[in-house]
Specification:
457 residues, Rossmann fold, 2 domains, six-stranded parallel sheet, 20 helices
Length: 457
Amino acid sequence: MRLAVIGAGYVGLVSSACFASLGHEVILVETDPDRFADLKSRRLHLYEPNLEELVALQTTSGMLRFSNCLDQAVQGVDAVFLAVGTPSHWGDGHVDTDALVQAVERLALCLRHSIVLVTKSTVPVGTSRKISQQMRKLRPDLAIEVAANPEFLRNGRAINDFMRPDRIVLGCEGPRAHAFMQAVYQPLESHCANIIYTELETAEMIKYAANSFLGMKIAFINEMSDICESLGADIEAVGDALGLDRRIGSAYLNPGPGFGGASLPGDLQALATSAKHAGVPSRLIEATISANQSRQNTLASRVSAACGGSLRGKKIAVLGLTYKPDTDDISNSPALPLLEGLVDLGAQVHAYDPMGMDNAYAQFHGSVKFCASLQCAVQQADAVITVTDWSEFRRLNPRKLLEAMRGNVFVDLRNIFDPCTMRMAGFNYHSLGRSQAEQAPFIMASAYHFDKRIVLC
């Protein structure tokens, strides 16, 4: 198949490289001059594990090409995938589809033959149907069928998610689109038995429903964590026990500082807004949004309490700026309101992240010191906070870390470390939902028999 993909953002770039690796000829269209220049020089404007190597491999083979001219790029292709940005406006949940509409209008002027037009961007339910109507109005002379093919790519695992998906969702307007989408994904049939064919609106809704449920699951375990902390229960054991229930599953049951990224917060807001406009209550979604915002807004207060009630003049080392490891994305990261809160409380904030420094620097230049290394960040710190569970942080030696610090407060917002080990090293250690584990001198293996964190002290 010959495919054109419009938009070299995260979804467009990953999808193009993966489509090419499946044996399709792909031309990726990017009209931003700086981004296009980077692509031509094989410099990626985003970080995703193994993506740079995959792009280089496919461009060298000739299966993946780049263009800044839509007119030339779409001639002779079988399908065009729309992967332009559709950001959600934080607060009102409005999804900005202006770039998508403009891309469709420009495409209509360029086309000289019939194609299948595929919506890859995350869009409000009903958008693909409107695109179909728009194309019929603009180009009644062409037989263009529309498909909705939402992505389920996780930052840090996007290539694996594309090549070995849990499911592939294909919303098809008609038989031609159905046959084409089946052919496009045929190479993945051996890796994915769950290919769902449905209508356009249902395909769009599946994406929003999936992310909304994951957001609710995260908000739920964080709320359980707070209750455990207050009542003396251990969230680690609670989460593991819940995960053994096949009706629930173990994913997304680790407490943390709240969910972030471009997808989950924006998609929940967008779905809540769509439901409101449709006159349908979305109480669970709205409660999830509120709970997540509240959790992130109280992180600085949690750190202040751990430091004795005052942060003024204290050096606080923040480890992790991205919303999750293995990405450079700081969109809606819990680290952002944490940094703001720490600065407002008078702390001297030193931050370090393996990949997210450049993106955070623009927002906090002057108020936060960004350190070139973990060692620099923690040197003479009164307290250390882990916000993102990068593997580099997991390898920390507690005793060496304490020797580098001035104080001994450690606030673990990802429950990376064992409480007993940290106390034995000399830390005033604070984690999430593990009051019982932190106060008890030891935990009997017979009482908590999971392999995750059994450390007898």
